[in-house]
Amino acid sequence: MTPPILELVAASKTFRIRNIFGGEKSVAALQQVSLKLDEGRALAIVGESGSGKSTLGRAATGLFPLSSGQVLFRGRDIATIRGRKARLKHRRAVQMIFQDPFSALNPAHTVRHHLERPLRLHHGLSGVALGERVAGIVAEAELDPNHTLDKYPHELSGGQRQRVNLARVLAVGAELVVADEPTSMLDVSIRRSMLELIARLKTQRGLSLLYITHDIATAHYIAEETAVMFGGRIVEWGPSREVIARPAHPYTKVLLSAVPNASERLDGDSAAAAAFAVEVARVRGMAKEEIGQWTEVSPGHYAAV
Ligand SMILES: Nc1ncnc2c1ncn2[C@@H]1O[C@H](COP(=O)(O)OP(=O)(O)O)[C@@H](O)[C@H]1O
Ligand SMILES: [Mg+2]
């Protein structure tokens, strides 16, 4: 049996924060998180700001060492990867796309440079073959070559920049992509088309995706499965549509109630809205100890209730 492309085994990460008086505080950003992602599939990680989604994503790429637990890539603990070549290979195979489409682009270089560089460096391409590959990747990312290749990042729109980031990930030859809220800084009008592009690339390229979003309602566009994070833990996990249709954990229900049309419905009824506000406050204030036992609420759908 082939191992999952990504597996986290009881992964925990505690950050120590020093204050200006020299005191220390620790934040348990990730607590005993276990998950599996099979090749060619997508898992959405949803939760509010501060719930630990980015920490999970960065941990999955090996950007920092865990406090405890393991990250396995194709069955191998990434902490045991030794040697420059093997590390480079892993760094290429696992790529991140960030919320801020500017962050991974070098303002001093054109789009062409961003795409040619990894193709030369990692794939040994040059001349006509290089030009053809760049053109192919640009088309895959749905960028207009005549209006983007010789432009600098600041000359492009946010959506175009994020498409360049996607193209760059393809040029590097990523196998697993961690996309950390890739549409949240984009214009509302183009979010949908960006999600559709990511979904299409996943299918066409057989990419595996960890798709981080605070928007539980649209996670199913991309991801077959959804995991809900609350306070550094996963509290619910299952097929995306099942999690939305039949949320089992109180926190998942709160997240779903924050979806625009759900709250619109509540607005008309002030008693219901007040009761809802109380419930939200209760769930957000829940102590870690109140998070229940893992239970399979329906086939393949788990919740800590
Ligand atoms: N590098 C860091 N140093 C200290 N604390 C951090 C660091 N990164 C994240 N945290 C803390 O960990 C918690 C989870 O953060 P994060 O993973 O960014 O959540 P999310 O992406 O869901 O908003 C937060 O309390 C945050 O302040
Ligand atoms: Mg984040």
UniProtKB/TrEMBL annotation:
CDD domains: ABC_NikE_OppD_transporters (cd03257). The keyword Repeat does not apply. One of its GO terms (cellular component) is plasma membrane. SMART domains: AAA. Its main location: membrane. Coiled coil: none annotated. GO terms for molecular function: ATP binding; ATP hydrolysis activity. PROSITE patterns: ABC_TRANSPORTER_1, ABC_TRANSPORTER_2. Keywords: ATP-binding, Nucleotide-binding, Transport. It holds the Pfam family oligo_HPY. The keyword Mitochondrion does not apply. It is found in: Cell inner membrane. GO terms for biological process: peptide transport; transmembrane transport. InterPro entries: AAA+_ATPase, ABC_transp_ATP-bind, ABC_transporter-like_ATP-bd, ABC_transporter-like_CS, Oligopep_ABC_C, P-loop_NTPase. It is a peripheral membrane protein. Residues 15-256 form the ABC transporter domain. PANTHER family: ABC TRANSPORTER, ATP-BINDING PROTEIN, TRANSPORT ATP-BINDING PROTEIN. Belongs to the ABC transporter superfamily. This is Dipeptide/oligopeptide/nickel ABC transporter ATP-binding protein. It comes from Devosia insulae DS-56. The lineage of its organism: Bacteria, Pseudomonadati, Pseudomonadota, Alphaproteobacteria, Hyphomicrobiales.
